[in-house]
Amino acid sequence: MARKLNKILLLILKLAVSSSLLYFVLSKTGVEKVLTIIKTINPLAFIGVIFIYIFSIYVSSIRWRLLLPEEFKGKRLFSFYLIGSFFNTFLPGLVGGDAVKTYYLYKETNKGSLSFASVFMDRYIGFISLMTIALISFAAGFKYVKGSLIEWLLPTIVFSFLIGSFTLLRLRLGKGIKAISEFYGYFNAYSSQKILLTKALLLSCAIQVLSILSMYIIALGLGQHIYLSYFFIFFPIIVTISTLPISISGIGLREGAFVLLFGMAGVKPEMATAMSFAWFLSTASGGLAGLFEYLRLKT
Question: pTM here?
Answer without folding.
Answer: 0.88
